[in-house]
UniProtKB/TrEMBL annotation:
Residues 1-20 are annotated as: Disordered. Keywords: Methyltransferase, Transferase. GO terms for molecular function: protein-glutamine N-methyltransferase activity. Coiled coil: none annotated. It comes from the Bacteria. CDD domains: AdoMet_MTases. GO terms for biological process: methylation. Residues 154-302 form the Methyltransferase small domain. It comes from Amycolatopsis saalfeldensis. This is Methylase of polypeptide chain release factors. InterPro entries: N5-glutamine_MTase, SAM-dependent_MTases_sf, Small_mtfrase_dom.
């Protein structure tokens, strides 16, 4: 890395290595750090680790969300998030070989870095924000997330979306299973939570797939913890595994047709609705003739003006599919109930649906 020979650069968001870097410690005031970051200068922290966290918090307070009417709220929110990420990403830390932080009162981050696949063979720089994300992901993975529909915990890995929004899981847990269903496919399995729900509901064989190697490893780990490895097979695939067919196909694709700015964003952002389109277009080839598919979608994109209901229904129709039933639920997560959230009006109005689809010839 230029200016730091023998040192690598890691960024979860794909940010390029910094061009201008100054060193600073606990004597740097937050206003000074803010001016440097806004000007594009990165700050390599040499002070205490608690001091670095305090500075990051102080910088964050200097980047308020802009208020907006609901019609413009989402676009402005994304712009504010990108601006925040750019500025907060300027505060850097250095880890020595072995992923050791030498700052005073620094935590041991070796396991968190290993879980994220960050090589520890040589020293590297990263943003403090990214590192704190790794630490948080490690804690999520260690503690797990209670999923009432399973009566057990799911342990999300770094970069795999956590099933903290339980309403979509509950939809899959309650929807009527097709009579006598012997197998199912879970497309875009993520943590494996929906595959686990299907197996716990009595589906004898479930094929779970995901295009992310991180997600595949995460799903395998969770299914092993739940004792379901013998009933659920996990494979890496771009949407559908080749030649796979099932009488029940379940998919909870990313809900927002926008650009992802982080690994976690990829679970909710689908540029150009690529995965949604691919799922619908290919579904008839992977669905048994008398089978059905469950498409789980939020209408948040419609509320935010990113997609219309007519567009969704048109894609379903063009794929040779028909809607035979729809089950709806409303959000229960904390941000939907928080009036201070910049997207509160959209979140409070959001509806998540399970669309039961069949091929047009079977829809009657």
């Amino acid at each position: 890395m230029p200016g730091f020979p023998g040192c690598s650069w890691y960024s979860e968001t794909g940010a390029p290595p910094p061009r201008r870097v100054v060193t600073a410690d606990d004597t740097l005031p937050a206003d000074g750090a803010h001016r440097l970051a806004k000007a594009g200068t990165s700050i390599l922290w040499t002070g205490s680790f608690p001091g670095a966290r305090r500075l990051l918090t102080a910088l964050d307070r200097r980047l308020p969300e802009r208020s907006a009417d609901p019609a413009q709220a989402f676009r402005r929110h994304r712009e504010a998030r990108a601006r925040r990420a750019r500025i907060l990403g300027k505060l850097l830390v250095r880890l020595e070989p072995g992923a050791r932080l030498t700052a005073s009162r620094a935590p041991d981050v070796r396991v968190a870095c290993a879980e994220a696949g960050w090589s520890a063979e040589r020293a590297f720089l990263c943003s403090l924000r990214d590192l704190l994300g790794l630490i948080g992901a490690h804690e999520w993975r260690r503690r797990g997330v209670l999923v009432p529909a399973l009566g057990a915990r799911i342990h999300p890995h770094h970069g795999v979306f956590s099933p903290v929004r339980g309403e979509y899981v509950d939809l899959v847990a309650r929807a009527p299973l097709p009579t006598g269903v012997r197998s199912a496919s879970d497309v875009g399995t993520g943590t494996g939570v929906l595959a686990a729900v299907l197996a716990r509901r009595g589906v004898p064989s479930v094929l779970a797939s995901d295009s992310s190697a991180r997600a595949v490893a995460c799903a395998e780990d969770n299914l092993a913890r739940l004792g379901l490895s013998g009933r659920v097979t996990v494979t890496e695939a771009d949407v559908f595994p080749a030649r796979a067919r099932a009488p029940l196909v379940v998919c909870n694709p990313p809900w927002l047709p926008g650009r992802a700015v982080s690994a976690l964003d990829a679970a909710v952002c689908d540029p150009g609705s690529r995965m949604l389109r691919a799922f619908l277009d290919r579904l008839p080839r992977h669905l048994e003739p008398d089978g059905e598919a469950w498409l789980i979608m939020s209408d948040f994109a419609e509320l935010a003006g990113l997609r219309t209901r007519e567009e969704l229904l048109g894609r379903i129709d063009r794929a040779g599919l028909k809607v035979v039933e729809r089950h709806d639920t409303t959000p229960r997560h904390r941000r939907a109930l928080d009036p201070a959230d910049p997207l509160h009006a959209l979140r409070a109005a959001e509806v998540t649906s399970l669309w039961r689809l069949r091929t047009s010839t079977m829809a009657g």
